Amino acid sequence: xxxxxxxxHRARSVQDALAALADGNGDAKPMAGGCSLGPMLNLRLARxxxxxxxxxxxxxxxxxxxxxxxxxxxxxxxxxxxxGAMPCATNxxxxxxxxxxxxxxxxxxxTIGGSVAHADPAADWISTLLxxxxxxxxxxxxxxxxxxxDTFMLGGYSTELxxxxxxxxxxxxxxxxxxxxxxxxxxxxxxxxxxxxxxVLHDPERGLTRVVCGAIERTPILLEETSAALxxxxxxxxxxxxxxxxxxxLSDHDAVFRQMHHTAVDRALAELGSK
Length: 275
Ligand SMILES: Cc1cc2nc3c(=O)[nH]c(=O)nc-3n(C[C@H](O)[C@H](O)[C@H](O)COP(=O)(O)OP(=O)(O)OC[C@H]3O[C@@H](n4cnc5c(N)ncnc54)[C@H](O)[C@@H]3O)c2cc1C
Description:
- Helix 9 (224-233) runs antiparallel to helix 10 (235-249) and helix 10 (235-249) packs antiparallel against helix 11.
- The N and C termini lie far apart (49 Å).
- By secondary structure, the chain is an alpha+beta fold.
- It has 2 domains: 61-173, Uridine Diphospho-n-acetylenolpyruvylglucosamine Reductase, domain 3, CATH 3.30.465; 180-273, Enolase-like, domain 1, CATH 3.30.390.50.
- Helix content is 35%, strand content 25%.
């Protein structure tokens, strides 16, 4: 099947893109790498009357460093992050996750912002950014705001972004030299979407200790009790409370699903312990 007819607008700036979206009266869609939007158009799951191409808006490729933050534009591709084309604030966490996304042809086009805005529950960035306690920069016609990654995703393929809004950047914490992370993705073949994700971060100097379980068919979850045990007493203590928390938080899923997600997080904790 071919995509339905739409009007194509190449935006030259964020303001230009916002104006083109506003003109679309809710029927316009932004396009970043097109890796998900392209198939959705061809399958006619999306039928926008206008597609606003973001790839020529230079602000979406910004990189800005402060003493404790790195701000990156939404349009950085997975491949560029994998290759270390920007300063690394996360002790290798972002490049390693990027390397595990799909295969190189997809990574060459797919963008971190497109992935987060698309909000596929099985995608890698949404779980990673939750682990890092990242914040998101959103531009609306009436100005800019920051959103917490904790509340940005409302459910599978659903976010707090309005039809006339753009995700323009991601604010990442800079980890200290003592910041350690581990990420375990269960998938049948290398480069596939995850069946289960376990992600762990412990940076005592930055006060960041977070354990996340992802690819659960809805918003990834921050495992608060396991995170607290990790911060208090280390990976083994965290692993001891993990089973109970997973069983409670995923009680609407069957035992196989809970076991797979327990395994993903448990392996991430074990890897953290060995670092
Ligand atoms: C074969 C294949 C395998 C894949 N495997 C994985 C995988 O293993 N792990 C993984 O995490 N991902 C995977 N992906 C997803 C891929 O990596 C991209 O992240 C994803 O397709 C979206 O990024 P994009 O830049 O192409 O966005 P697009 O396809 O351009 O856009 C996706 C959606 O987000 C909206 N959008 C895009 N940018 C913005 C913005 N800045 N502001 C507001 N809305 C925006 C669009 O309107 C659209 O609705 C895979 C994709 C394919 C095709």
